[in-house]
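Q&A log
Question type: sequence-to-structure
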Amino acid sequence: MSRATRVLVTGAAGQVGLDMLDVLDGVVPPGGEGSFQPDGRPVPEGEFEVLALTRHELDVADSDAVHRAVQAARPDVIVHLAAYTAVDRAETEASTCFAVNAAGTESMSLAAKENDAHLIAISTDYVFDGNKGGAYVEDDATNPLNVYGASKRAGELFCSNDDTVVRTSWVMGVRGKNVAHVIAERAIAGETVRFVNDQTGTVTVASDLVRVLATLVRERPGGLWHVANSGTTTWFDVAHYVGEILGRDEGFATAIATADLDPPPLATRPIRSDLSTDKFASTWTALPDWRDGLTRLIRDRAARGGAR
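Response status: OK
Response body:
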């Protein structure tokens, strides 16, 4: 019997990290779909030996700590999920954001190379400016509009050609804080919501994302990959659909323009940053439609009593 693949997961206590630990253990995460197997192979218990590090256990902005952690773990693959993700706060904390997302990713890439490990790093649709007028493919030119996007783009550039960089977008999981929970809480409370209908993107349900990452842990393809659930949408459509799942009528969600947000967000978002996932789908299997993913998320959220 071959030995288990050693996988080091950073950011292991985040919404994606928790789901990642489940799927590598052969468990379908909350909100997951057991039949979704992009590589056509289930994940059996014992295939992976997982070493999980939370942000409290590893400060990825500390280069020496990163190198020590990777050398001690001696992983075959690193799934680098630790990140600074507060998009608006990053506008006033640029140095901290870059220390984590750019310098931290550089340290992780260098440490992976030094220890013969394969790095899988996570990036974002916010590396794009939204002016293309259509879905972005992997080799489209980048032009981030905010500090967060710029820090993630810098992190991409610090990765080697052998590393695998996964761009994803609008990530939502059953566990952790995200917009799906906010919408659901207000729907259940009988309140209403206002969401913009002039920002178009692609939803990524965390439980589907991590099943893709498990495939990439196995395959270690290298290069850039766009990963998101199928179909484009707007934030208003997301809110309306969550309300529909929870039995709210048409009046639950109101569409507004980005210019009408009060107060206006500190960070500028791209108007259209949907990701084309054709490259991944043609190599393995397309992710389920975003509505299917959100339905599972809301269903399992309710089964957990709404707890995050």
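Response note: The first strand starts at residue 5 and ends at 10.
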